[in-house]
């Protein structure tokens, strides 16, 4: 039996993803970074940083659900943005997705992201949907 289980959303199998969207190991879900792409087509959605942040988090939510977890179980989030001028606008969206006990987070400004994205978000979450927090 494997110590880790790969997680991939069935609708994204034809989108050219070259890695697993998540790995579950020892009760923890490690999610790969999500760019603001439609999970069915793989295309970056239209819009600016706020629409893109929503899409990244919706994608993470879908991956976590597939892994048997949920956003509320996230303990660590890493955000990568290409322009710190977008930090406040990204945060306006980000805070809508977690309750009073938000996951710890790092936000890093990077020069480029895959496929020309302006934001990418990854997270680590506890496995299991039942909240015991």
From TrEMBL:
Q: What InterPro entries does UniProt report for this protein, alphabetically?
A: RidA, RutC-like_sf, YjgF/YER057c/UK114
Give a single Pfam family match.
Ribonuc_L-PSP
- State the SUPFAM superfamilies in the record: YjgF-like
Q: Which GO terms describe its molecular function?
A: deaminase activity
Q: Organism's domain of life?
A: Eukaryota
Q: Name one GO cellular component term.
A: mitochondrion
The similarity annotation says: Belongs to the RutC family.
Family annotation (PANTHER family): 2-IMINOBUTANOATE/2-IMINOPROPANOATE DEAMINASE RIDA, ENDORIBONUCLEASE FAMILY PROTEIN BRT1, PUTATIVE (AFU_ORTHOLOGUE AFUA_5G03780)-RELATED
Q: What is this protein called?
A: Protein mmf1, mitochondrial
């Amino acid at each position: 039996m494997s110590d880790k289980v790969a997680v991939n959303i069935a609708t994204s199998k034809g989108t050219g993803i070259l890695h697993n969207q998540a790995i579950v190991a020892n009760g923890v879900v490690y999610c790969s970074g999500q760019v603001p792409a439609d999970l069915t087509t793989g295309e970056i959605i239209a819009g600016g940083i706020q629409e893109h942040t929503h899409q990244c988090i919706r994608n993470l939510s879908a991956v976590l659900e597939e892994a048997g977890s949920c956003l509320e179980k996230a303990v660590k989030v890493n955000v990568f943005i290409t322009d710190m001028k977008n930090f406040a606008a990204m945060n306006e969206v980000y805070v809508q997705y977690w309750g009073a006990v938000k996951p710890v987070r790092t936000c890093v400004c990077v020069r480029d992201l895959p496929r020309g994205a302006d934001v990418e978000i990854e997270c680590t979450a506890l496995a299991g949907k039942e909240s015991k927090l």
